[in-house]
């Protein structure tokens, strides 16, 4: 015989937040009349220690096997009340919450009667669902303690070293034939003045000598299957395919530099970009006569709306380098706004001015004109056009999203922003994580960053990635999809195609092709359950029966 | 039929957006008619056509799927 359902309902006054606008006494009396309800209690604050003690006591004394709390929103208080149920000896998933504050008393403050009637309906719907709730256990899954880092620029090498130094095995995958990324093209780095190539060499040497790091150069990632703890990666090294499993993945694939073809008479000889200038600066004898730099070349326009953030500081750094090499070199920087945040960068900006670098603001509506031997620019404050002598024009072009970003975003099922850079899970709460568990990002792959910022982010991403790695086992909420009727499943795979998280797969069984849920990857969205025309799949705590019961409890009590 | 028509509306709200929006309406004390009953789901993708038909079958005057 099935267990008798014994529901306890706790109706919260929330001080006067609910009791001031709804008739809570009437709600409590009403709850007593509902099916399976054996105990009802009105609390001044159900979430207080007193309230939770009353819940725990009632579970024992009244032998409750379901608890319903009618109070505020489950988005803030469901975890607390579930915990209370657990402490009282009841499975935390035999709990249902009814929102009679945020979605009732607070939005019907002038309609006590109608608001109270609505709250009655909501409590009736919650109690009806509660009667059908099933106990659930947290899902545990092991984590493979190996990490994959994609991209061996300064970000990727830093992240790989941070993880390897903590004792984790790291596979560092780099598509080009050498490590170092953009550092290989740069001259010196601001504000320290350190040589970029030697920084890259130092990291490359540490990576190469580290027993925990396996470096795969000239290698692309072809396929990634699986989920946090168990990513199955297929790589391709010069046509040879290989595979390995990793528990976490860090995306450090960097960015490209815009080649400003068609802009400001760019030719790569007399009109170059900052990256090409850095190549020339590597030669000690390089010393041009008059240099004009043009900021925001190909950026902050209709095609590329964003500010690449670092180009002002790059221009200031290179202007100083030219001036220090030869004080008579004329350097003029035509800019729209100067972005030189942070104390050191602001100081470099001042230093450049002191060295005689001229900063001239231009209006994007009247952009500078590059001509033979001169650059013409309209000076806003003077109200007239200036003709600046030039032997070399340097365009400050933005960093642009990597060519492979779209491919990688599909492989990992992670998002890109409007400019095709990788998009973090949350600006403030998850700045180095993707929305997909077990995948992290750092450096230029996310957005243009200075070397210093890229290193900080890489250390942060490695730290985030080491949380699951160090736990070894992960526990996830059991509000996930389940195959409730294996007989009914025809293995059509529609749910597999629609699952946004890669949490379903088709497996061959003795009974033919059947779907299998990968619970740790599932987020409980229920797209599969809504799609399955055979009703073979369901979502724990949101089953077809439970939702239907809520509908009928409202409309057809 | 003396009473004024009062529609009965069921709303399926995604926990992560629309349900949070309904909470925010409360926090902001935005007043709206008490004709709506919200059913919380973890994603509007959970709402199968079956639920919507069931609601209409049982006499709902409107169904809102928001997510």
- Biggest β-sheet description of chain B: 3 strands, parallel
Q: CATH H-level name of the largest domain in chain A... which superfamily?
A: FAD/NAD(P)-binding domain
Oligomer: heterodimer
How many strands, what sense, and barrel or not for the largest sheet of chain A?
5 strands, parallel
Q: Short description, anyone?
A:
The complex is a heterodimer of chains A (557) and B (67). Chain A has 557 residues and is of the alpha/beta class.
Could you describe the 3D structure shown?
The complex is a heterodimer of chains A (557) and B (67). Helix content of chain A is 31%, strand content 25%. With 557 residues, chain A is of the alpha/beta class. Chain A has a five-stranded parallel beta sheet with strand order 8-7-6-12-23. In chain A, strand 1, helix 1 and strand 2 form a beta-alpha-beta unit. In chain A, helix 6 packs parallel to helix 7. The longest helix of chain A has 21 residues. Chain A is elongated and about 90 Å long. In chain B, strand 1, helix 1 and strand 2 form a beta-alpha-beta unit. In chain B, 28% of the residues lie in helices and 25% in strands. Chain B has a three-stranded parallel beta sheet, with helices on both faces. Chains A and B meet through helix 4, helix 5, helix 14 and helix 15 of A and helix 1, strand 2 and helix 2 of B.
């Amino acid at each position: 015989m099935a267990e008798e359902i014994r529901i306890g309902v706790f109706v919260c006054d929330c001080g006067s937040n609910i009791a001031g606008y709804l008739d809570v006494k009437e709600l409590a009396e009403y709850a007593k009349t509902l099916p399976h309800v054996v105990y009802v209690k009105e609390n001044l604050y159900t979430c207080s220690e007193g309230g939770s003690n009353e819940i725990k006591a009632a579970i024992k004394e009244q032998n409750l096997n379901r608890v319903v709390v009618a109070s505020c929103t489950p988005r803030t208080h469901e975890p607390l009340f579930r915990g209370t149920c657990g402490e009282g000896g009841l499975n935390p998933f035999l709990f249902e919450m009814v929102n009679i504050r945020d979605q009732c008393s607070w939005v019907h403050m002038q309609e006590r009667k109608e608001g109270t009637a609505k709250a009655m309906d909501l409590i009736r719907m919650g109690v009806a669902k509660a009667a059908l709730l099933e106990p659930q256990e947290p899902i545990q899954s092991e984590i493979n303690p190996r990490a994959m880092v994609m991209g061996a620029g300064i970000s990727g090498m830093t992240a790989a070293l941070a993880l390897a130094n903590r004792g984790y095995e790291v596979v560092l995958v780099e598509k080009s034939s050498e490590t170092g990324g953009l550092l290989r093209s740069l001259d010196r780095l601001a504000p320290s003045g350190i040589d970029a190539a030697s920084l890259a060499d130092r990291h490359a040497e540490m990576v190469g000598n580290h027993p925990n790091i396996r470096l795969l150069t000239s290698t692309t990632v072809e396929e990634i299957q699986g989920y946090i703890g168990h990513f199955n990666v297929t790589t391709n090294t010069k046509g040879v395919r290989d595979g390995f499993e990793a528990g976490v993945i860090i995306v450090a694939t960097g960015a490209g530099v815009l080649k400003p073809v068609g802009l400001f008479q760019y030719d790569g000889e007399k009109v170059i970009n900052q990256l090409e200038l850095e190549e020339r600066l590597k030669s000690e004898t390089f010393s041009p006569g008059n240099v004009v730099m043009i900021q925001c070349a190909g950026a902050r326009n209709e095609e590329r709306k964003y500010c690449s953030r670092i180009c002002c500081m790059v221009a200031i750094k290179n202007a100083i380098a030219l001036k220090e090499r030869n004080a008579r070199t004329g350097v003029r920087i035509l800019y729209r706004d100067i972005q030189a945040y942070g104390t050191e960068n602001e100081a470099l900006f001042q230093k450049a001015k002191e060295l005689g670098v001229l900063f001239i603001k231009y209006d994007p509506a009247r952009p500078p004109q590059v001509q033979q031997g001169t650059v013409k620019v309209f000076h806003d404050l003077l109200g007239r056009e200036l003709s600046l002598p030039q032997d070399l024009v340097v365009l400050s072009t933005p960093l642009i999203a990597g060519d492979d970003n779209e491919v990688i975003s599909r492989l990992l099922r992670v998002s890109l922003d409007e400019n095709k850079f990788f998009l973090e899970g949350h600006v403030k709460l998850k700045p180095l994580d993707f929305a997909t568990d077990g995948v992290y990002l750092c450096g230029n792959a996310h957005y243009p960053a200075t070397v210093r910022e890229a290193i900080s982010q890489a250390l942060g991403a490695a730290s985030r990635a080491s949380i699951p790695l160090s736990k070894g086992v992960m526990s996830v909420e059991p509000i996930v999809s389940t195959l409730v009727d294996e007989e009914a499943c025809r293995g059509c795979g529609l749910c597999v195609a629609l699952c946004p998280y890669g949490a379903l797969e088709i497996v061959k069984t003795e009974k033919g092709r059947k779907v299998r849920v990968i619970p740790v990857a599932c987020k409980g969205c229920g797209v599969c359950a809504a799609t399955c025309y055979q009703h073979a799949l369901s979502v724990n705590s949101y089953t077809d029966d439970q939702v239907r019961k809520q509908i009928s409890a409202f409309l057809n009590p | 039929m003396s009473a004024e028509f009062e529609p009965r509306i069921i709303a399926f709200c995604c926990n992560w957006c629309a349900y949070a929006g309904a909470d925010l309406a409360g926090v902001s004390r935005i007043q709206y008619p008490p004709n709506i009953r919200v059913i919380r789901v973890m994603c509007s993708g959970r709402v199968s056509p079956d639920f919507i038909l069931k609601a209409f079958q049982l006499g709902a005057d409107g169904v809102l799927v928001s997510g």
